[in-house]
Design goal:
Pfam family, one: RsfS
Shape: globular
Protein name: Ribosomal silencing factor RsfS
Subcellular location: Cytoplasm
CATH architecture: 2-Layer Sandwich
InterPro entries: Iojap/RsfS/C7orf30, NT_sf
Distance between the termini: 17 Å
Strand order of the largest sheet: 3-4-2-1-5
Number of helices: 4
Strand content: 15-25%
Radius of gyration: 13 Å
Helix content: 25-40%
CATH class: Alpha Beta
Structural class: alpha+beta
CATH topology: Beta Polymerase, domain 2
Subunit structure: Interacts with ribosomal protein uL14 (rplN).
Number of strands: 5
Amino acid sequence: METQDLLKAVVDSAEDKKAQDIVVLDIRGLSVVADYFVICHGNSETQVQAIAEAVREKAEEMGLNLKPLEGFEQARWVLIDLGDVIVHVFHREEREFYNLEKIWADAPRLAWSAER
């Protein structure tokens, strides 16, 4: 599976659940953990869980074997490890607090939309 196809599927799934401020960071060369981070947030625990569940379902449909979702029950910061792509679904308040975009400021932001 192409990483770009996976990124598109993740962004589409998050947008379907009205995820806010979706950012794709290219962390190739900056981290050995993954190639891309997808960062987004929801405005309630229920929305955070819905976004994470939609991403998980899409990844499974694409044939990926997933590890358990980290943080799903608390729904404040859910981490979804898709191999080359790691998805961070935050509650708005946690996103502001942890500010991954600032921590990874050296990573290029990809202009991304579901139409891509």
